[in-house]
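User: Before I run my own analysis I want an independent prediction to cross-check against. Here's the chain; please return only the structure tokens and, at the end, one sentence I can use as a sanity check.
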Amino acid sequence: MPQLILVPGKERSVFRRHPWLFAGSVERLIGQARPGDTVEVVAGSQVLGKAAWSPASQIRARMWSFDAAETIDDVFFKRRVAAAVARRATLPSLVGQSGLRLIHAESDGLPGVIADRYGDLVVLQLTSAGAEKWRSAIAGALAKATGCSRIYERSDSEVRSLEGLEPRTGWLYGSPVEEAVVIDEHGIRMGIDFVAGHKTGFYLDQRDNRRLLGQLAGGRRVLNCFCYTGGFSLQALAGGAAKVESVDSSEPALAQARTNLALNPQLDAARADWRCANVFDELRRLRAAGERFDLIVLDPPKFAPSASHAERAARAYKDINLHGFRLLSPGGLLMTYSCSGGVGLELFQKIVAGAALDAGRDARIVQRLQGAADHPVALAFPEGEYLKGLLVEVS
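Assistant: Structure tokens:
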């Protein structure tokens, strides 16, 4: 087996069980390895584990195992996938959910592997050279562990280009789905566009935060920015919001949101307003019009995919939160998020605090918000905590 020799001193991250080995940590590769091939990770004369080789990426290798004796083969993936699926079955908050993340990449010991379940359908996303190499084994393990009859691949994330990989989509198992794929989330039916929607079709990580919004929305006028297919909006309606105004720049997303509303006839559609607009511009327009809201959701797309984009992202987060604070009525609530891996929680809180100060609002954090339980964060891999949020109350 090829051996990846580490620069002396760079083995410390492996001893801490961090799964990434960057280019600067690699002294040399002994032997021949193609992208995705398994290599032994060596420090001095000690083999520290097995990793997937990725010569095109700044992350040169991702650890499959910290056990030097473990074999990386089909059985390994059956074991890892089955363990990830079984863990979800033990968490009370996930019982009865028909939309579920089954594999959360590094935090489930499977770097570059994302798998989301929507009823009888699993949507698989592979973002690393190692995951690409073991596609068939991973898909087969998912079919066995879940009993699902269909697996669709959505490996079209931009991060694949950093691994030297082309986009890849299509059916891996089963026949195309003719009927609409619909899940039930805390009593709300949501249609899933797994072929063309964001990520694998839906943002399952916000499941519990959407339920919280519904619990807070009673009698309030709600503004949902970057609403996508209406998850927060429909939970707000279910919670008794007086009015819910939703804004997104994607007309296809809004069309799906209207369809999702129609899937829930128990909700009062007259209290919902959908608007296709640039959120930054719309926040300014609402401010100029003298509008006020009791509860505002800011759940923007990823502004900073890496730390190098943090400064530019900070300006964007500052802008939307500044206008959010200005639009809130006294006693109003701001539910604000960042899903940017390049913006940590400390920086995000600092940005939101600065926005409140510039808006002239006294504000306090009521609750810190994070991803749902099926999106775990390995203690040795803090980078996995990409979603962070704050529930803020203003005076």
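Sanity check: The chain has a mean pLDDT of 96.
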